[in-house]
Amino acid sequence: MAFTDSLISECDADVVMVDRRDRPGGHWNDAYPFVRLHQPSACYGVNSRVLGSDAIDETGANAGCYGRASAPEICDYFQRVLEEDLLPSGRVRFFGMCDYRGDSSGEHHFVSRLTGEASTVRVRRKVVDATYLAPTLPSTHTPSFDVEQNVRLIPINDLVALTEPGSGYTVIGAGKTGMDACTWLLDSGVAPEAIRWIRPRDTWLIDRAFVQPLELVGSVIEGLSLQLEAAASAESVSDLFHRLEASGQLVRLDPAVEPTMYRCATVSQHELERLRSIENVVREGRVAHIGETRITLEKGSIPTDAKQVYVDCTANGARRVPGRAIFGPNHITLQAVRTCFPTFNAALIAFVESTREDDAEKNRLCPPNPYPSTAVDWIATTSMSQRVQVTWSQEPDIVAWMDRSRLDVGRGIIAHASEPRVQAALARYVANNEPAIDKLEGLLAGAG
Description:
alpha/beta
């Protein structure tokens, strides 16, 4: 949606969208109902339409930060983008409930999932693959562990459908989904001691206060400059992460446990405190089997009871796959370029497609930046993001596009350049950017 919106605003392209779901919104249609964006709504969605009210939350766990839309709000938003913006343009056609079946002799085929009717499209320019990074979702994936017949195992989606309490709640999964499940249970009145969290690994998290756009955009440049300062001064991978933590750029749930994951998840200080209130954390590896009286894990087993409710949060989310060339002679494969901002990346790719002819040049401007998974992946994604930012800064039309793109979290930073906080951050950024990139690339080579 972000790609199509940007493309038709920059050129006279016609677009045929084929989706296996009945409406736009992708994975948000299958997400658990209480999930929220981990980035502000103010820089998510498509360029042509604001998502939410661009207001800062005054109360709650997200107080002091820009609002984050829920799954229902996001689905409604994308439906409005389609019905009120894209389709009325006369240059976009949407075919829902259809499966793409491939191409032959330059013709591309898709089939209705309802009627079986086949359709053919002759593509004049390129096929755009928006499925390469399609996520695995809690509501549709199959757990990797065995479960005995009478065990109450539910996907996180079904928490809102419970009609009677369990003796306790066992959350299985260490990532963003597991954190969301724990937070929702706590916010719904479940006592921390009633929650058992099976967390084989811990993850580095981003303090959400440093990823705020618009009037709080100074936080972005301040956070980035602190990251670059930490990177430029780091003597080893371990030293880097300790410096990032000391400067507030990465946080962890348990100060005594060194995280081994990093997946772009954000957290507020309030949420961090709430999650730390859960003391029954199981670190015996992944679950292998859940029985009525015992849970078997990779490194041991623990007792349980038949009335426990198990919440499966083990789906992997976004696919962690190798990067491939985004632009080819007949195709575009949508992927990350700047780490952690998917709709910005899609819109930027569309702008580059509409303003450049040579695929080699397009790929130079948009190198794929695979989603991070392990802690050391922070180094790879950050160094690539910074390296390509330098490349963009030398392209006046890209600079101008980013300055008017609502999806760019750093948009408008120059307007705040007189603020002492921003001035200090810009000076730190300039002093450390190139040394940090070189250091990160060196650390990555050594870690590999």
